[in-house]
Fold this protein.
Amino acid sequence: MTRKALGRGLSALIPAAPVTPAATAVAAASDGTPIKIAVDKIRANHLQPRRHFDPEALGELAASIKQHGLAQPIVVSYDPLSRSYELIAGERRWRATQLAGLQEIEVVVRQPKDDKQRLALTLIENLQRADLNPIEVALGYLRLMKEFGINQTALGEEVGKSKSGISNTLRLLELPEEIQKALQFGQLSEGHGRALLMVTDPNLRHAVFKKVLEGKLSVRETESLAKQVEAGEPPAEEAPVKKAAPPKPADLRALEETLQTSLGTKVVIRANKNPAKGSIQIHYFSFDDFDKIIKVLKK
């Protein structure tokens, strides 16, 4: 089944309902017609399943949006009482648009009647765009199953996945927190996670996990090592080991995001071994960008 099948049964989860928001433009957008609204009129989705937004990737997306525009509208709902909007899907694009310094963004308005419908729209749109890491996908599957009382087979039909594919992804939640974090931050792929599940002894699994990170092993190499360890054969000690680069500290990532928002461009902070030293790299993508950055820095 192709990814185009994703969400084909969404109407079963979110039945169509008449929408009568205050603004005529919003009513038009509720029929799927994109409209432009002020970026600052939108608030984040309180049910957002995505937990990590990579500052460098956001900077790259912001640069692309600044140069080429937004490729696809974000999805929002309209609150007539506050006359504001809440994100349903597309927070990464929304953040990047702010980072690019744009004042307006193209949106499509949907009106979910409750949090269950909002969650379904958010998860399925994100899954369709492959915007979630494997753990976020697994947690999204689990939440959809619990909220809507559906089994793995029914969920697979909704999101265009086989029952075994759903099951394999959900099993990643059986991994210990340390390995789940490695999957969340892109140090390991879903294939690595599945291979590590082959090792049943927690201590041996941890040892294999460390070896995979240190040696930067491929999925196939990880599977081979997992089978070897599970069969009772100790891994060869003389195998060359490459050191994996440690993930960037959360405080540096947060600072990068703050600087990117202030300067309206991509910013990369690199710390030396001595944390008191390092470098800040500010990117510009045109002479106009360069002039704007200089003006901000001179303030």
Remarks:
- Confidence is low (pLDDT under 50) at residues 1-25, 238-242.
- The CA atoms of residues 13 and 117 lie 7 Å apart.
